[in-house]
């Protein structure tokens, strides 16, 4: 077995912000470049890899564990587009049990069984529920799992808030060998002020934007076919952006400790932008103000 | 970060609940917790409780859902339901009582609603006793409150001659059963019937009808108060709190307080005190010769819980004529509880004013003793705190050796003695305590 280093990446972000869409497109783009990739969905919703598998759900690690006491990792790996290895951690029914503990169980099961090495992977990409509500959702950024974290965020205040929370998590684990921050994937960035907002946020927190991904109907159309944009519209402008993003991530080596804003700073920062937008776009405020 | 407790003299809320339920006749506890909880709790109960044993369905026979990772991730209510049904099939009992550990509460398992769904009426109960809720005393209060509000019948006619008495926590008071016997007899002496729930010859039927009582007597200012408030709310029965009495000075007060609250006449109260005193001093008198011949007056250090330290210090100071120097209370107490307790250590007939220290670390006892009474650094004249006697738990055995004091384990944990029907409460208990103390003093002879 080749003794190469497996690049493990975690992608976080607020619910519904586009993590799974972005991650699946990155995975698809990377396999097209000839890499061996596993996408590991760490969200009890269990739909991370759907667009890699024709829109179909796969049995999750925890579903399988619920039936039997021991699970072989190979039983819960399902091949998707271009040979991407798809895994869903799964979780309990909403309102019972402990989803966080479920993520820990699933991730540790894979780690213990040394599956990544056996499959000779180049990349493992964790797609993680981004409101890091408890220790379980921080497990991919703890020591010995992912090294690089990227966060998907729009210019929406709640998305930025979730990103900032994630930065705090990274900050906390950073001196204990945890993952560091690669940067922000700015999603649904169409209006010019949206770019400005995100640019200002990364400046404040001493990180960078890896790529600006516009909101595009191609993504929606592809999703409706149960496919990633890379698969359904390989020649589209959007596919080019996802490919460029994937390559940047593949080449990325140096991650850093971010400098999250504290609650007061964050609020001040947000209200400053709100004022700015008001002044900038009087007359149009009502429709655009929802972005901050 | 909050302060941690070094060498706690209690277990968790669930542990207190187990001890409480084991002490009730015909009750089987069902633990909803990880496998280790029941085992550890049983060891702490038996080993620290004067070898109380596992009883009808305790110790290694405690039914437990023994949750593992699967239950933690997906929720353990299903496993609990199985465990309840199989326990009800296998173990005979009048009441099954589900109590919960930390982990199942943290993941949001709802034992109370599982029990409700099973719809077994007044045979099956559940209470949340997650260890993080507090210590053994909390578990006692939680279990009692639950039984008072759901098991005890409402709407019964009051019985003017019936009272309930509690506040003596099974196992945390290693002599609970003996103490309840003694206190029950005292109140009976005033002309009342008494339920103590955990004592000799008590039945669940008595507990069920305890709402007939006209007064609840809580023999503590700290334990069982929540339960008394619940009782008041549900059954509209008033309660009084009294000090845990040991010896003449403590017990005469106890009789007066209880008698007054019940509206007993002075004649009845005084007649009872007189009768008890006559017997008490008749025996106590015997040690007077040895006491003075061998010079058995001692400096005393008293270390333990809020109930006992108070009763013991009064007994040593005012009944025995000893010199209590230092009292250390290890309980977890609120500031106002401390303030309240302080007053109880300052009105001795002897005029003695012992230093009172609140420290939750049982490991700090020696430190406090050395601070209280400066260590001998070999000056020409040194007034030492000798001879001294330390009354505490098994934890203080070594400390006593270090300060060359003699030692008796009275409060939890008591691991160096077997305790059966012994009592230290009241007049009767004070005689036993005197026997025990003087036997230690004279053991080398
Ligand atoms: N750049 C984009 N353009 C258009 N639609 C997008 C884009 N990114 C995400 N979406 C859509 O947003 C919805 C939520 O995305 P998803 O990836 O499932 O979010 P998450 O995984 O963060 O919860 C999906 O319907 C997805 O198609
Ligand atoms: Mg998702």
TrEMBL record, chain A:
EC class name: oxidoreductase
Alphabetic keyword roster: 4Fe-4S, ADP-ribosylation, ATP-binding, Iron, Iron-sulfur, Metal-binding, Nitrogen fixation, Nucleotide-binding, Oxidoreductase
Positions of post-translational ADP-ribosylarginine modification: 101
Enzyme Commission code: 1.18.6.1
Binding, ATP: 13-20
Pfam families in alphabetical order: Fer4_NifH
Catalysed reactions, as listed in the record: N2 + 8 reduced [2Fe-2S]-[ferredoxin] + 16 ATP + 16 H2O = H2 + 8 oxidized [2Fe-2S]-[ferredoxin] + 2 NH4(+) + 16 ADP + 16 phosphate + 6 H(+)
Needed co-factor(s): [4Fe-4S] cluster
Function statement: The key enzymatic reactions in nitrogen fixation are catalyzed by the nitrogenase complex, which has 2 components: the iron protein and the molybdenum-iron protein.
Homology family: Belongs to the NifH/BchL/ChlL family.
Subunit structure: Homodimer.
PANTHER family: LIGHT-INDEPENDENT PROTOCHLOROPHYLLIDE REDUCTASE IRON-SULFUR ATP-BINDING PROTEIN
Protein known as: Nitrogenase iron protein
From TrEMBL, chain B:
Family: Belongs to the NifD/NifK/NifE/NifN family.
Pfam family, one: Oxidored_nitro
Domain Nitrogenase/oxidoreductase component as annotated: residue spans: 12-441
UniProt KW NAD keyword: no
An annotated Gene Ontology molecular function: nitrogenase activity
UniProt protein name: Nitrogenase/oxidoreductase component 1 domain-containing protein
InterPro entries, alphabetized: Nase/OxRdtase_comp1, Nase_comp1_CS, NifE-like
Alphabetical keyword list: Nitrogen fixation
